[in-house]
């Protein structure tokens, strides 16, 4: 029988305690090669079971680029996403759409629902194990994931993906064929549940006639999806960047390290296509099954994002958005890092 601590650590590491009809879209948002799916309720309503249209995005001018925020996988390290979002928000940088995998899908969907960065931080600090933990022994895993689904839906006010104020795209992996899929409509919590379902730990999430598992297996930092959606500027947050020592003398350590190695190599390929890559230093903060040090992990995101503000400004200017863009020009010598989450 699983003891209480093991159940707590495993599910929290996977879910990470945080803690986000096509009308007049820009043309580049319509030719997407990644498979787009809806969870059943939306599929029935639209009578489109396989390929869904993208939610309408605002119209943009040449001085107002489409910004994508890409939030990668990484278990408890996903707290760092919140720190990054705090810095971006406080400096007037808000994404036009978000793409999230696994841990990134949790933070991204709650942020996309209209929550502020400060609210994200409070959610992360106040979340309890029983909010998301539902042990269910099965041949395919020992966490059901239904509580994760319900928790996320509560946090997003029961809004389906297509009604979130910021368009949200959730990446998961279709188990039978091992292919990447992107949910952009329907039950938000169910899509996130699929995206965080680590194989052999979570029972795969069944949606319609298919089973889905952790999106990090196919696309740990889904930059390519953001590019396919037509983003002009892609800000990617990679929380798997630094090497870290993992104890491999037991099954959990081996499992942890296997995921680390696989996802790191996959992420490196996609990150080549991002404009800005933010990689918090998490070597001494958290690992994929760690639920301690939430504050330290969020602060690592703060520090990393501050270090990229000058580069973001340079990207704007290099791409011709220097006039009328939504952010200020940053002093590259700035080295003061301070966040007051209440503001």
What topology does this entry show?
Layout: H1 4-15, E1 35-38, H2 40-46, E2 67-71, H3 79-90, E3 97-101, H4 103-112, H5 117-126, H6 129-132, E4 135-138, E5 141-143, H7 146-155, E6 168-174, E7 179-185, H8 188-195, E8 205-207, E9 210-213, H9 223-228, E10 233-237, H10 251-271, E11 276-278, H11 294-306, H12 309-318
Parallel strand pairs: 1-7, 2-3, 2-10, 3-6, 10-11
Antiparallel strand pairs: 4-5, 6-7, 6-9, 8-9
Helix pairs in contact: 3-5, 3-11, 7-8
For the sheet with most strands, the description reads: 9 strands, mixed
Low-confidence runs (pLDDT<50, min 5 residues)?
Answer: 1-12, 17-32, 41-61, 323-343
**Domains, number:** 1
By CATH, the topology is Cytosolic phospholipase A2 catalytic domain
CATH superfamily: Cytosolic phospholipase A2 catalytic domain
Percent strand equals 5-15%
CATH architecture: 3-Layer(aba) Sandwich
In terms of quaternary structure, the protein is: single chain
* Rg value: 19 Å
Instruction: Label the overall shape.
Output: globular
Number of strands: 11
Which structural class is indicated by helix and strand composition?
Answer: alpha/beta
Helical element count?
A: 12
CATH class: Alpha Beta
Mean pLDDT: 76
How would you describe this protein?
With about 350 residues, the chain is α/β, with parallel strands linked by helices. The chain has a single domain, classed as 3-Layer(aba) Sandwich (Cytosolic phospholipase A2 catalytic domain). The chain has helices at about 5-15, 40-45, 80-90, 105-110, 115-125, 130, 145-155, 190-195, 225-230, 250-270, 295-305, 310-320; strands at about 35-40, 65-70, 95-100, 135-140, 140-145, 170-175, 180-185, 205, 210-215, 235, 275-280.
């Amino acid at each position: 029988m699983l003891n209480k601590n093991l159940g707590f650590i495993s599910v929290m590491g996977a879910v990470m305690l945080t803690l986000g009809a096509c009308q007049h879209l820009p043309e580049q948002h319509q030719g997407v090669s990644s498979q787009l799916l809806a969870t059943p309720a939306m599929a029935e309503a639209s009578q489109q079971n396989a390929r869904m249209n993208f939610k309408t995005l605002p119209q943009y001018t040449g001085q107002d680029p489409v910004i994508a925020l890409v939030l990668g996988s990484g278990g408890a390290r996903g707290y760092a996403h919140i720190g990054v979002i705090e810095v971006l928000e406080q400096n007037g940088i808000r994404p036009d759409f978000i793409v999230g995998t696994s841990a990134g899908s949790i933070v991204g969907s709650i942020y996309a629902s209209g929550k502020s960065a400060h609210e994200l931080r409070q959610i992360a600090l106040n979340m309890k194990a029983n909010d998301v933990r539902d042990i269910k022994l099965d041949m395919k895993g020992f966490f059901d994931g239904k509580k994760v689904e319900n928790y996320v839906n509560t946090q997003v006010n029961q809004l389906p993906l297509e009604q979130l104020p910021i368009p949200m795209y959730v990446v998961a992996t279709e188990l039978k064929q091992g292919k990447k899929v992107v949910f952009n409509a329907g039950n938000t919590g169910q899509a996130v549940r699929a995206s965080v379902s680590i194989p052999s730990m979570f029972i795969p999430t069944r949606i319609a006639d298919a089973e889905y598992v952790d999106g990090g297996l196919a696309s740990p930092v889904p930059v390519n999806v953001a590019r396919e959606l037509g983003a002009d500027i892609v800000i990617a947050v990679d929380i798997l960047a630094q090497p870290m020592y993992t104890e491999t003398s037991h099954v959990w350590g081996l499992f942890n390290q296997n995921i680390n190695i696989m996802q790191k190599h996959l992420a490196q390929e996609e990150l080549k296509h991002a404009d800005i890559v933010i990689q918090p230093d998490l070597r001494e903060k958290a690992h994929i099954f760690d639920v301690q040090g939430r504050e330290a992990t969020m602060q690592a995101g703060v520090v990393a994002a501050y270090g990229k503000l000058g580069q973001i400004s340079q990207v704007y200017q290099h791409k011709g958005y220097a006039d009328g863009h939504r952010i200020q020009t940053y002093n590259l010598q700035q080295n003061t890092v301070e966040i007051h989450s209440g503001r």
